[in-house]
């Protein structure tokens, strides 16, 4: 089976990181990804994709995973469910690689 996702978009907010112990860290952020067509309202529809990244370097997170930054991600789709009054299903992209695609002068 093949489960591969490659996306490019902008962060809707600064990435949030949680540390579980000294060696495990998970970073979550939402990526706004424009679709490749213009809708009847003359705008491109945008999808908001939930991203999960394990053990990214802290320096990378603080430098590149800020609101509005353009990044590319490569990973796989993964779904899960939870119950809170009713059953909810969530689909996320678990990333293997995150690439900054816009650099400031001097980088």
User: How many β-strands, per DSSP?
Assistant: 6
Helix percentage? under 10%
Average pLDDT, rounded to a whole number, is 91
Fourth-tier CATH superfamily name: Nucleic acid-binding proteins
Spatial gap, N to C terminus:
39 Å
Beta percentage is over 45%
Within the CATH hierarchy, at the fold level, what is the topology?
Answer: OB fold (Dihydrolipoamide Acetyltransferase, E2P)
Plain-language structure description:
This protein is mainly β. The chain has one domain (5-100): Nucleic acid-binding proteins (OB fold (Dihydrolipoamide Acetyltransferase, E2P), Beta Barrel), CATH 2.40.50. Helix content is 7%, strand content 56%. It has one helix and six strands. It has one helix at residues 58-64, and strands at residues 5-11, 16-19, 25-34, 46-54, 70-84, 86-100. Strands 1-3-4-6-5 form a five-stranded mixed barrel. A hairpin with a 1-residue loop joins strand 5 (70-84) and strand 6 (86-100). The N and C termini lie far apart (39 Å).
Features:
mainly beta, OB fold (Dihydrolipoamide Acetyltransferase, E2P), 7% helix
Quick description:
The chain has 107 residues and is mostly beta strands. The protein is 7% helix and 56% strand. The protein has one domain (5-100): Nucleic acid-binding proteins (OB fold (Dihydrolipoamide Acetyltransferase, E2P), Beta Barrel).
SSE layout and pairings?
Blueprint: E1 5-11, E2 16-19, E3 25-34, E4 46-54, H1 58-64, E5 70-84, E6 86-100
């Amino acid at each position: 089976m093949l489960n591969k996702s490659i996306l490019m978009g902008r962060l809707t907010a600064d990435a949030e990181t949680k540390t579980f112990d000294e060696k495990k860290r998970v970073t979550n952020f939402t990526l706004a990804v424009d679709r490749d067509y213009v809708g009847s309202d003359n705008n491109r529809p945008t999808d908001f994709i939930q991203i999960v990244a394990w053990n990214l370097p802290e320096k990378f997170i603080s430098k590149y995973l800020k609101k509005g930054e353009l990044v590319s991600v490569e990973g796989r789709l993964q779904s899960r469910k939870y119950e809170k009054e009713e059953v909810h299903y969530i689909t996320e992209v678990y990333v293997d690689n995150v690439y900054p695609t816009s650099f400031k002068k001097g980088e």
